[in-house]
Model the fold of this input.
Amino acid sequence: MPSMSPKPRVAEAARLATTDLETLSRDSAERLPRLLEAMVTIGTGPGPDLHSTLDHIVETAVRVVDCRYAAIGVLAEEDDTGLKDFITSGMDDEEIARIPHLPDGKHGLLAAVLRTDEPLRLPDLALDSRFEGFPAHHPPMHSFLGIPIKVGDELFGNLYLTEKRGAEGFTENDVQLLRILATEAGIAIGNARLREAARIREQWIDGSAAITTALLAGDTDDALAVVAEQARMLAGASAGLVLLPTSLPGDPADDHGERRGLEIVAAAADDTRGLIGTVIPPESPVLDQLLGGSPVFVDDSANDPRMITPISARFGPSMMLPLESGGRVLGTLAVPRGRGAPRFTEAEKSLATRFAAQAALALVMADALHDRERLAVYEDRDRIARDLHDLVIQRLFATGMTLQSAQRAAEKPEVRERISKAVDELDATIAEIRTAIFALQQDPGEAQAGLRTRVLREAGLAAVPLGFQPSVHFVGAVDARVSERTTKNLIAALREALSNAFRHARASRIEITVDATVSLPDGREGVRLTVADDGIGIPEEGRRSGLANLRRRAENLGGTAEWGPGLAAGGAGTTVNWAAPL
Done:
């Protein structure tokens, strides 16, 4: 039978309730005021969420039939069996905590009556052949009454009552009253479901708008981290993960030489250790589906044979959603919940899929905006490089020639020595300016650039917003010794440190040092990035997500990140030390 629309369902419920009222016995009629009061209070429950409504229903049922305990067992999804929730009244939190487990509806008496449409009344449930006993520390219960609760035509669950007061068991009058109450409860639950669905939908819409606003506002440095954190919060997940396609070394016997995977590049979680850098390998059963732009939903990541990454054991239900825009798959957004957590509903899956599509569109738009901004920066860099070469170096060279002439004419040795030092300083300055010009002239899209070139490139890019050129020093064979994975994370850390110096520190001097000859605290060989400035330091109340990102990147590689006093007098400013294994 097709389900009725909301108005006919309410009308039908009202008709049934009226019919039942007409057949009430004298005893039930005497309790009618209490029932009507209960129906009013259920219809105007204390909170808009479903769980508050269910709490209110069980407490009301206890008062209506005057019993000691009541519970509502909520049916699991259609493709499952048993209960997905069990709400009780009559036991305090300590009593519930002592019971090893609440009923799951998969065994015993509750399993037998769970999907029935008719009330079940027993003088002593322990005497029923379907009863399998109580768990340890469960209070004794004898008389039993179970009433189905329907929301429209759908069986929502059952209302269970035990331990009728002042009588040996529940009466037929109790059944009549509870049937009326169950009808009103079904209407209240339906309304609560609608309110909760609207609230959740509004949250996801607001989240999508917040993502778009944040990314288009120009703060794209942490774009993927922003997407991961927002998705985690909206989905009520343990983590939010963004995965991007990555190339992996091919099998020596493979003529193609490359394999594709998905690598976690941004993570939002209480504990992010071991997350960033994890790769879904080509042999994963879900990889083709994800790269093809299809979502993957998993009920239990820890036990699903398709989930073969080491981190899968940490999670339970999971959604892996394509970040797809205009037919182009940018990557995957994963939002896993903890082990034992409720599975994602169909509504949550639909809303999360739409959120991922909106986030992908925002990322594409933000990337286009960033490209336009970079184009303007490149034009400024070309102009600065020309000015440095055509004006500044020529003037410095001419000044050096003049000083050398003055040095030869000077009579006192100490004067000649001071002029010689000045000439040396000018030579060093010219060399550093030429290095800066080289960095400014490098193609930012150049493939396979070494660490040295990438560091110089970042310093050159930062020169325009900073208004000055950071100095750069290298120690050791940085290109030959530092691995590609560490290089990528070091450059990201450098970019974060320079961004912090520009946005918050108001620095006028920055010194960058990359040392590939250091030893880490555990004795391993490593590389250290030092970024020191003479700004105002780190404000106590300031935003520290950037510093947290620095530390997280280092720790995921097995390294460290620290910050301390800077270059200015008295230690003013900030020095960031970021280290990782080679």
